[in-house]
Amino acid sequence: MPTPVLYKLVVRSFFVTLGMLAVWWGLDSFFNGSVWDGMVVSKSALVVEYCEFNHVDKFFHQPMNTYSNLAYFFFGVLIVQIAYDDYKNDGLKRQNRLESFPMLSALMGICFIYLGFGSAFFHASLTYIGQRVDMNGTYGITLVLVSIGLYHVLYKVRFTQPVKTIWTVSLVILIILFLKIALLIPSSKLLPGLILALLVCIAINYFQFRKERSGLVGIASLVLMVIAVRFRTLDVQKIGCDPHSLIQGHSIWHLLTALSSVCSYSFFRFAGRKSSF
Question: Is 99 marked within a binding site?
Fold first, then answer.
């Protein structure tokens, strides 16, 4: 993808996200906390898990932890556009494996958007169902990234179009099933396991195509995730906590995990590109 085209997609994603910010602000201004009355409150709300003050009278109970999910939305819109551009160029000579599988990139972008709305729903309402959707969105992004990693590690296996369709549909089904699976296995074990699987795939693929992969992008993905976990931990432990601050540890977690996930995606999608980002 030429750099000017990529920049155009980034700018377009920015304005779409700006529009979504306006919509969210309008909703928060027009509605109040009574919208969530009658819904089961999450355990997170009961134990006051996060530092940010819970404005139960407001539509967005945790405003900063809600608005920060626009980071996922922005990258989701961007990746969906990249997928569409790949689809339009179908049949042209490919420079990497993921470019020839636009459905997988599209699902990646959709999962980003899904998490953006899901996590916003949770932090706005602090409800049990919101928390479930939030975690499912998190698993969705991670599962798709792991599948992208496996797809590249198995580079000798030729994927026909029907196989690609089955692969994508199976992923969607698996993400839905994780609504149940997540209740059976603690997230403290399941999510780190999936992240480890992704990192292993990145490492293997780097050594498979050392000259075509950016080790710095792969390392950035890991470093950003480690820093994100640190900020989340400090936020939960209420260390350096200011409940009314515009800067919240969990909001930073949203931003850094979004960046980490994009780095993982970029490691594969923009491999060997001078115009990569």
Answer: no
Q: Examine residue 33 and state whether it is found in any structural domain, yes or no.
A: yes
Asked whether residue 71 is domain-assigned, the answer is: yes
Report field, pTM of the whole predicted structure over 0.85:
yes
- Residue 228 is part of which domain span? 3-269
Q: For every residue of the chain, which 3-state class applies, written as one string?
A: CCHHHHHHHHHHHHHHHHHHHHHHHHHHHHCEHHHHCCCCECHHHHCCCCCCCCCCCECCCCHHHHHCCHHHHHHHHHHHHHHHHHHHCCCCCCCCCHHHCHHHHHHHHHHHHHHHHHHHHHHHHCEHHHHHHHHHHHHHHHHHHHHHHHHHHCCCCCCCHHHHHHHHHHHHHHHHHHHHHHHHCCHHHHHHHHHHHHHHHHHHHHHHCCCCCCHHHHHHHHHHHHHHHHHHHHHHCCCCCCCCCCCCHHHHHHHHHHHHHHHHHHHHHCCCCCCCC
244 is in an annotated binding site: no
For residue 61, say whether it is annotated as part of any ligand binding site: no
Whether 256 maps to a domain, the answer reads yes
- On whether 89 is known to bind a ligand per the annotation, the reply is no
Look at the chain and report how many structural domains it folds into: 1
pLDDT digits (tens, 9 = 90+) for 173-214: 999 999 999 999 998 899 999 999 999 999 999 999 888 888
The CATH number for 97's domain is: 1.20.1070
Q: Does 143 fall in a domain? A: yes
